[in-house]
Amino acid sequence: MKMFRGFFVILALGSSIVLCAAAQAQAPAASAKTPIRIAVATFSHETCTFCPSPTGVTEWEYYGPPMTGDDVLKSGGYIRGFVDAAREYDGVQIVGIYSPRDAKGGSSGSWVTKEAFDKYSKGMAEDMKRAGHLDGVYLALHGAMAVTGVPKPEAELVRRLRQEVGQIPIFVTLDLHANEDKELSDAANAVFIIKRYPHYDVALQGERAARIMIRTIRGTYKPVMATRKPGIITPSVFQGTDMSPSMEIMERARKWEERTRDVYVSVAYGFAYADVPDVGATVMVVTNNNPKLANEIADDMSGYIWRIREQFAGKKLPKTKEGVAQAIASARSGKKPVVIADHSDRTGNSTHILEELIRQGGRNFCITTLADEKAVNEIASKNKAGDTVTVSVGGYADQYAGNPVKITGTVDFLGRYGRFEKVVVLRFGENNRVILTPLLHEATDSSIFQPLGIKLADLDVIVLKSRVHFRRGYYENGLAGDIVVVDAPGLGPADLSTIPYKNIPKNLYPLVR
Ligand SMILES: [Zn+2]
After folding, report:
1. 474: Cβ contacts below 8 Å, ≥ 6 apart
2. What is the DSSP string of 381-442?
3. pTM higher than 0.90, yes or no?
4. Which residues surround ligand 1, an ion (CB under 5 A)?
5. SS (H, E, C) 320-366
6. 52-82 pLDDT tens trace
7. Which site from 370, 377, 398, 404 is most exposed, i.e. has the minimal number of CB atoms within 10 Å?
8. Residue 90 Cα to ligand 1 middle (Å)
C-alpha cells in the first residue's frame, strides 16, 4: 500500500501569515525483516557573502574531488552519528553518495557559484540513481550556503534530489548557523538542528536522524513539521550556548523534547553575514504525526525568542583600543594567558589588533593566526628557519582588514602544519609572534603551539580569529586567565546595522526596533 498525504495549516502569527506544510510522504510500512537502503550525502557551506572571493568548483575541489561511497560514510561529524546509529539495526544498508569536500577557506568564502551548485546537486542526483533502490535519503547540510541565483539552496537541493528519488523520506541535519525557512521543511520530511555552540552535538543530531528515519521507513513514525521565523538576527559572537540567553533558548527546546514523546525541537540562530532572504533565527519542530502539537511548540519557542530579543541581540563589546588595553592590563595583573577574540575578522587577514598591540607596547603576544598567503610564499621562497626577515603582513584581503604591518623578525618556524604545506612563525619585538597561514585558520584550542615550537607558558596574550568555538579549547578547560572579545572593524561585526544588506527581510530585530 502506498500512502501519500499532504496537508497545510495556515496560522496568523502576529501580523505575518505562516504557512506550515506537513510531511509530504509516508513510505510503505516495511517489516523489520525487509532490508532498508538509505543514501547518505553532504554538501555543506557557511557562506560569508560580504567576503571577497567566490566559492567555485576550484575552491570546492581544493582538497580533492568529491567523495563517493565509503569515503562519505567515513567523513565524520553528523555522518558519523548517522552511520554509527544506523549500523546498530539489522537489515539496514547505508550507501555513501557523491559529496563535495570542505571548500577552500571554509566560511571565509563568498557566494557559491551556480556552476558549482548545479554540478554537485546533479552529481548527487545521478549517484542516487546509480545506487538503485532507496528507502530514504539523509543529507548532512550546513544551512547557510548562499548561491548566486539560487535564493534558498538547501531547499532547492532537496527538491532536485526529490525529483530523482521520489516520495521517500528525505531527512536533513543543520548547523545552528543555518539560515532557513519553511521552504526547507516543505521540501524535506524532517530537519534536526544542533543545539550547542561550540558544536558538540553534531553526531547526536546525525544519530537522531538515523533512528527517526528507520522508524519512518518501518512505519512507526510519521514526521510532521512546523516552522517559524521569530524575526530576529544576531551576530555569531552572541550566540554561544554557554552564555545567556542563548543557553535558555536551547534549554527550553530540550524541555519540550523531554516532556513530550517523539518530539524534536530545533532552533537555528542563523548566520548574519550572509545577505539572503531567509537570514535570521528559525524554529523547526518535528512531531510524530501531530500538526497541532508541532504548531503549539513552534509558537511557544518563537514567542519566547521574540520576548528575550533585547538581551540576545542588544549586547555591546569593546572596540579595538579599549579591548587591547583591557587585555594588556589583565595580563599584567597576572591573568595569563589572556585570549583576545578578534571575532569580526572573517578573512583572517585583519591587522587592527596586531597594530594596536604594537602601539600599546604589548609583549609576549601571539597572533594565532594571520591568513596571508603572499607573506608565507615570500618568506618561504627566500628564507629558512633562523633567518631574519623584514616583511609586510596582512591588511589587504578585505576592505576592513586594516593596514599591512611591516615586521622585522626571526623566522622561528617554516614548514608543514595540519592541512597547510607551509606555515611561518615570525618572532619580533618583545617575544611577540605572528603565525602566518596561507588561509583562514581558526585555532579553537592550544594544540597549534607545540608543533610550531611555541611554549604556551611564554604567552601573555593570544589573539584568535574566532567568535565562540575557541571557548572549547580555552574557556571550558580553564586555560585562559581572561577572555576579551574585541569588536574590531571587520566583515563580521557585532553591530549588524553597519552591514550593507540588500536581500534580507526589512523587519528584523534589532535592525528595526
Ligand atoms: Zn556553526
Report:
1. 339, 445, 446, 462, 464, 480, 483
2. HH--TT-EEEEEES--SSTTS---EEEEEEEEEEEEETTEEEEEEEEETTTEEEEEESS---
3. no
4. 175, 177
5. HHHHHHHHHHHHHCCCCCEEEEECCCCCCCCCHHHHHHHHCCCCCEE
6. 999 999 999 999 999 999 999 999 999 999 9
7. 377
8. 33
